[in-house]
Amino acid sequence: MKTTHLTEVEIALCAEAVATDSAANTVSDFSKKHLNHCDSCKKQVNDLAETIRQKYNDEIVIGLNNVMRKRSVLFSWIGL
Question: How far apart are CA 10 and CA 44, in angstroms?
Answer without folding.
Answer: 11
